[in-house]
UniProtKB/TrEMBL annotation:
Membrane-spanning ranges: none
Keyword Cytoplasm set for record: no
Entry's Gene Ontology molecular function annotations: mannosyltransferase activity
Keyword Repeat: yes
Top-level taxon of origin: Bacteria
One GO BP: endoplasmic reticulum unfolded protein response
Name of this protein: Pilus assembly protein TadD
UniProt cross-references to Gene3D superfamilies, sorted A to Z: Tetratricopeptide repeat domain
TPR repeat start and end residues: 148-181
Signal peptide: 1-23
One Pfam family this sequence matches: TPR_16
InterPro entries in alphabetical order: O-mannosyl-transferase_TMTC, TPR-like_helical_dom_sf, TPR_rpt, UCP035836
Length: 276
């Protein structure tokens, strides 16, 4: 296999682990936000529902929120806050196609609204429509007053498209606007995970964990990076701070299993060695 093929194979492998590790978090929902390589605060304040941030809800609470917001959405599909919240909950409960339909209708009604375009971009990314998602996020951005959240979200999508250099440039721009922001540092860390540069990734993740606003997802990303380097006991200790012992153990067991397949662990070790 060519070196380019090995790198691409590594990217798919690492990203598959990132999806699983993040999917078994406190919310208990088997879905991830693809506008982030690691963890990111919502692109709009409208993503936070009446009960607080949806990311902090468990599965039952999310289903209740989905039912309530669905009824409100049916009564008034053009209400921005309701539609954006409804789409956010739909994404978090694995109904990305329905979330995209909700946001596509809202984007038609509000074609120049920045918050709507940002949420539309997230819905497009969650459905795997990355190029369209980038276009929506770019249209939501204002060059004279750039939004760091949108820059970070764009970077995460570019990372998933394999455009690492462009992604990191956007993370750096975001950090210039909001230095020491946990979600940007975490995204940068996951960018280095995706390229197999694990020691650099860990450095960014530890900065993210120590930064103001660090949340459960950021600390789970640190556990993932530590585990990818084979330090499973340490990774499990970190994971237990956020998850139940059973969930943490299941995550590490899955990680061990994935790393034992198709010589993936050897490939990662080769990629993470410093170049001489």
């Amino acid at each position: 296999m060519t070196s380019a093929g090995i790198i691409q194979r590594n990217r798919r492998f690492i990203f598959s682990i990132a999806i699983i590790a993040l999917a078994t978090g406190l919310s208990g929902c088997a879905t991830t936000d693809k506008t982030t390589t690691g963890s990111i605060t919502p692109a709009s304040g409208a993503d936070a529902g009446p009960a607080g941030n949806f990311d902090q809800m468990n599965e039952q609470q999310l289903m209740q929120a989905s039912t309530s917001l669905g009824a409100r959405y049916q009564a008034n599909p053009k209400d921005k806050t309701t539609a954006v919240n409804f789409a956010a909950v739909l994404r978090m409960t694995g109904r990305s196609d329905q979330a995209l339909a909700v946001m596509r209708s809202l984007a038609i009604a509000y074609p120049k609204d920045r918050d709507v375009l940002a949420a539309y971009g997230k819905a497009l990314a969650s459905s795997g429509e990355f190029e369209a998602a980038l276009d929506a996020l770019r249209r939501a951005q204002t060059p004279e007053y750039p939004d760091w959240k949108l820059l970070s979200a764009q970077g995460a999508i570019l990372d998933q498209l394999g455009k690492t250099s462009e992604a990191r440039d956007l993370y750096r721009q975001a950090l210039q606007i909001n230095p020491n922001e946990a979600s940007i540092l975490s995204n940068m860390g996951m960018s280095y995970v995706l390229s197999g540069e694990l020691s650099t990734a860990e450095s960014y993740m530890r900065k993210a964990v120590g930064a103001p606003g660090s949340d459960s997802r950021v600390r789970q990303n640190l556990a993932l990076v530590v585990g990818l380097q084979g330090r499973f006991d340490e990774a499990e200790t970190i994971a237990k701070q956020e998850l139940s012992p059973q969930q943490a153990q299941a995550n590490i067991k899955y990680l061990r299993s994935m790393l034992s397949q198709q010589n993936s662990w050897s490939m990662l070790k080769d990629k993470s060695k410093p170049k001489t």
